[in-house]
Design goal:
Number of helices: 13
Shape: globular
Largest sheet: 7 strands, mixed
Strand content: 15-25%
Radius of gyration: 20 Å
Order of helices and strands: HHHEHEHEHEHEEEEEHEEHHEEEHHEH
Structural class: alpha/beta
Oligomer: single chain
Bound molecules: pyridoxal-5'-phosphate
Distance between the termini: 20 Å
Number of strands: 15
């Protein structure tokens, strides 16, 4: 049996007719940028996130960048980000002209260690970026406390966590601003790149809108030198087709995670990620820790089971950030996890036979 890591074709087939209708509607009007579907999607996505505003942008990376700008981050600032995240979180900080300051993660779940934030603050630190990695919310109470003690803006990176809840409240509604990605493989994926900035702050929303579209206030008036970072109207129309299904897809992911958890918890040689009672995770990824990870991964592959590593190199050790002069050993938890973590196949439609096969293949690979 072959079990893919994700299977994006299933939804494409199921939604073909609705996608075709959306495509025809947009192309008949040739409304490709800043059209009505974009505004409709922004309203619907803001409501989904429990926020007053959503601003559709060109990618998750640009969403983090614009969220930082809208939260007041400026060139020369320091911004605290976890060492264990996708590089885009730190890249966005660099794109603003600010400097990422890395902190370690928690052994139990790989999320930012909020206790490490205070000690990492410098006189130039203006913001902190909690990343709701794998679809699990960061401890936002602890983060809010440290951010407020140091006067830091909280900018959430919710690119892997559409619909995740912390104490019953959706991620994306905690920070001054937050960023989402609609990269195709995400819990809500476009048919290409896309992203959104969410916020409850009207001024921040206006800043994100201004910067995403060349700083344009009125036609031919450009208040700031902005970017070409718009979410295409066609992608917004396709996302509008998918958004009503997102809650059910997230529920399906949780069911898959429950099956994996009950089959794997307590097994010798594998440690599942424990998700706290105060959060509702959306399992963008299902991550376990194993010894001899690369060997296990290879043996899984031989049995037809695809897997991933998120992420094999913590950001402080990436060539792109040698300039910051971190060394191996600076963030031991992130470094150790990077050697052991393994992401198993996870998508809403993975069926019972495939799940059972993944578990059996993993048990054999561990033996
Ligand atoms: C945590 C995190 N931040 C930011 C991004 C960037 O999103 P995009 O690929 O849409 O630019 C991603 C996407 O992989 C991500 O996982």
């Amino acid at each position: 049996m072959h079990v893919p890591f994700v299977d994006l074709k299933i939804q494409a087939v199921e939604m073909r007719a609705e996608f075709d209708a959306a495509f025809t509607s947009v192309t008949q009007r040739a409304a490709y940028t800043m059209g009505p579907e974009l505004r409709q999607f922004e309203e619907a996505f803001a409501a989904f996130c429990g926020c007053d505003h959503a601003v559709g942008v060109s990618s998750g990376t640009d969403a983090v960048k614009l969220a930082l700008i809208a939260a007041g981050v400026r060139p020369g600032d320091d911004v605290i980000v976890p060492a264990n995240t996708f590089i885009a979180t730190a890249e966005a900080v660099s794109h603003v002209g600010a400097t990422p300051v890395f902190v370690d993660c928690l052994e139990s779940n790989g999320l930012m260690d909020t206790a490490a934030v205070g000690p990492a603050v410098t006189p130039r630190t203006t913001a902190v970026v909690p990343v709701h990695l794998y679809g699990q919310p960061v401890d936002m109470d602890a983060l809010a406390e440290v951010a407020s003690a140091h006067g830091l803006a909280v900018v959430e990176d919710a690119c892997q966590a559409h619909g995740a809840l912390y104490k019953g409240r959706p991620v994306g509604s905690f920070g001054v601003t937050a960023a989402f990605s609609f990269y195709p493989g995400k819990n809500l994926g476009a048919l290409g790149d896309g992203g959104a900035v969410t916020t409850n702050d009207r001024a921040a929303a206006e800043t994100a809108r201004l910067y995403r579209n060349h700083g344009q206030e009125d036609k031919h008036t450009h208040r700031v030198a902005g970017y070409c970072d718009r979410l295409h109207n066609l992608q917004a129309a396709l996302l509008l087709v998918k958004l009503p299904h997102l809650a059910a897809w997230n529920e399906a992911r949780r069911a898959v995670a429950r099956d994996y958890d009950s089959a794997l918890a307590g097994r010798h040689g594998v440690t599942v990620t424990r998700v706290g009672d105060e959060v509702t995770a959306v399992y963008h990824l299902y991550v376990v820790k194993v010894e001899d990870r690369d060997g296990v991964r290879e043996r899984l592959g031989e049995r037809g089971v695809e897997s991933g590593i998120h992420y094999p190199v913590p950001l402080h050790l990436q060539p792109a950030y040698t300039v910051l002069e971190y060394s191996p050993g600076d963030f031991p938890v992130a470094e150790l996890r990077a050697e052991r973590i393994l992401s198993l196949p996870m998508f809403p439609e993975i069926d019972q036979t495939q799940r059972a096969y993944v578990v059996t293949a993993l048990e054999q690979a561990l033996a």
